[in-house]
Amino acid sequence: MKSETACDQTFKRLSDLLKDGLEDNLINNEYVTNGDIIVDNYSAKFRLTNDTNIFENINLTYQSNKLHIISGPVGSGKTTLLLSLLNEMYTTTGSIKMPINSKIA
Fold first, then answer.
1. Residue 23 · residue 89 · CB < 8 Å
2. Is 40 within a domain?
3. How far is CA 85 from CA 2, 22, 26, 72, in A?
4. Which pLDDT band, with edges at 50, 70 and 90, does 33 fall under?
5. For residue range 36-62, what is the model confidence (pLDDT) as tens digits?
6. Looking at the DSSP assignment, which residues form a beta bridge with residue 35?
7. In angstroms, rounded to a whole number, what is the distance separating the alpha carbons of residues 48 and 51?
8. Does residue 70 lie in a domain region?
9. 30 found inside a domain
10. How many domains does the chain have?
């Protein structure tokens, strides 16, 4: 029996996301037309119940056609921030505004 690798798991999650679309209850879906990704007063947590916010009042703008680097020590939240952009966290306040018809892979 073949063991499932991290790559297999990631491929399955991306396939499911593309097939099913984003869950509306996770994120305040708003769209911008200039191509930027705007994180506006964003707070989020891992679960809806019994979980404290992992982010509080984050404000960021990722400009289109620019290279952005997220760096920091182990455990500082780099992956969690990217998971938020992929709609994997529960939004408690604020929003993440994405370009119309954008896809993240």
1. no
2. yes
3. 31, 11, 11, 18
4. low
5. 888 899 988 887 776 788 889 999 888
6. none
7. 7
8. yes
9. yes
10. 1
